[in-house]
Design a protein that fits this description.
This protein has eleven helices and eleven strands. It is α/β, with parallel strands linked by helices and about 325 residues long. The protein has one domain: TIM Barrel, CATH 3.20.20.140. The strands form two sheets. Strands 1-5-6-7-8-9-10-11 form an eight-stranded parallel sheet. GO terms for molecular function: aminocarboxymuconate-semialdehyde decarboxylase activity; hydrolase activity; metal ion binding.
Length: about 325
C-alpha cells in the first residue's frame, strides 16, 4: 500500500547568524551538541533538541524505508517563520530556508518533496515567494495559523490564499506561537492544549467569517494535527450557529457543511480519535501526517492507519496515499 507523509519537518544543518545579519536579538540558530544531535536555540535560550534526520536526507530516507514511507513532504519548523520581524527580513529568511529544503530534496527528488514558507506579514512579498518556489519545484506552502493578531480571515491573508489557488499551490496550515503560554509554563502544555485550540480557531476563522464563500473552490488547504479540536467540537459549533444569530451573522450555511472545503492530517494518535475524524471529515479529506521527526509526532509512521480496526481497506488507501496525491497534484 503506497504511503505519502504530508506533514514532516526539516532544518538545515546550519545557517548564517541571523542576529548578526539583521542587528536584532533572539533569532533561531542551531547549536550542534554531539555527532548527529543539536539544539535549536532562540537567542540564548534552548528551544528544542533535534537530531540529524532534520538535515541529513540519507538518514531520513533510511527511516522512511523502516516505516514503509514512499514519499515524505517536508516543511520548515515553524520557529523559522519570522512573522514578528520586518517583512524584508522574513522574506530573506524564507528564500534561504526554501532553497535549503530543495537542496535536501535533491538527494532523492522522487521521494523527498517540500512545501515552502513565506513572509506572511507582507502579502506582496509572500505572493512573490510562493510563485518563485512553485516555479522551482515546491509543491505548495506551509503557513502559520495567524500573524500577530490577524487570523486567517484577515483580508491580506485571504488575498494570499486566493493567490495560492491561482498558482496551484497546496497550503498546509500549521499552528505556532500558541495562545496563553504564560499560563502553561510546564509539561509542554502549549503544545498539548493551545496547539489544538489554535488549529480549531484557524478553521473556524475561515468558516464563521464567510471566507470560504469568497475563496475559490480550487484552493487546496489542509490543517495539521487532525484539525486540532475541530472535529470533536463541531457539534457545539453547529448548535451555536442554529441558536444564536450573532454566530451565523457572516456564515450563511451550517458550519459542518464546509468540511468538504479543506483537508486535515491524521496525526491524532488514537484509534477512536481517527475514527471520529474520518466520520466527521469523510475518508477523502484525511491525509497521513506524522509530524516527523519530532517526539510529539507519530513514532511508527502510518501504523495508526494501517492497523486501524474499523477503517475499510479503501479508506486506509485514501488516507495513506490517494488523498495526498490529489491534494499535492502528484
Amino acid at each position: 500500500m503506497k504511503t505519502i507523509d504530508l506533514h514532516s519537518h526539516f532544518l538545515p544543518k546550519s545557517w548564517p547568524d541571523l542576529a548578526q545579519r539583521f542587528g536584532t536579538p533572539d533569532w533561531p540558530s542551531m547549536r550542534h551538541t554531539e555527532a548527529g544531535k543539536a539544539m535549536i536555540m532562540v537567542g540564548d535560550k534552548e528551544f528544542r533538541p533535534v537530531y540529524e534526520a532534520c538535515w541529513n536526507p540519507a538518514v531520513r530516507i533510511e527511516e522512511m524505508d523502516k516505516h514503509s514511507i514512499d514519499i515524505q513532504v517536508m516543511s520548515a519548523t515553524p520557529v523559522l517563520f519570522a512573522y514578528e520581524r520586518p517583512g524584508h527580513q522574513a522574506a530573506d529568511c524564507a528564500k534561504m530556508f526554501n532553497d535549503a529544503a530543495l537542496d535536501i530534496c535533491d538527494h532523492n527528488p522522487q521521494r523527498l518533496k517540500a512545501l515552502c514558507q513565506v513572509p506572511l506579514q507582507d502579502i506582496d512579498a509572500a505572493c512573490a515567494e510562493v510563485t518563485r518556489c512553485m516555479d522551482n519545484g515546491h509543491l505548495g506552502v506551509q503557513i502559520g495559523n495567524h500573524v500577530g493578531l490577524k487570523n486567517l480571515d484577515d483580508e491580506g491573508i485571504l488575498t494570499f490564499l486566493q493567490h495560492c489557488a491561482s498558482v496551484d499551490a497546496a497550503v498546509l496550515v500549521h499552528p505556532w506561537d500558541m495562545m496563553a503560554k504564560e499560563r502553561m509554563p510546564k509539561y509542554m502544555l502549549p503544545w498539548l492544549v493551545s496547539m489544538p485550540a489554535e488549529t480549531q480557531l484557524s478553521i473556524l476563522s475561515l468558516i464563521m467569517s464567510g471566507a470560504f464563500e469568497r475563496l475559490p473552490k480550487s484552493l487546496r488547504i489542509c490543517f495539521a494535527h487532525g484539525g486540532g479540536s475541530f472535529a470533536f467540537l463541531l457539534g457545539r459549533v453547529d448548535n451555536a450557529w442554529k441558536h444564536r444569530d450573532i454566530v451565523r451573522e457572516d456564515c450563511p450555511n451550517l458550519p459542518s457543511s464546509y468540511v468538504d472545503r479543506f483537508y486535515v492530517d491524521s496525526a491524532v494518535f488514537n484509534d477512536d480519535a481517527l475514527a471520529l475524524l474520518v466520520k466527521v471529515m469523510g475518508e477523502q479529506r484525511v491525509i497521513l501526517g506524522s509530524d516527523y521527526p519530532f517526539p510529539l509526532g507519530e513514532q511508527a509512521i502510518g501504523s495508526l492507519v494501517r492497523e486501524h480496526p474499523s477503517l475499510s481497506g479503501d479508506a486506509k488507501q485514501n488516507i495513506l496515499s490517494n488523498n495526498a496525491q490529489q491534494f499535492l497534484k502528484l
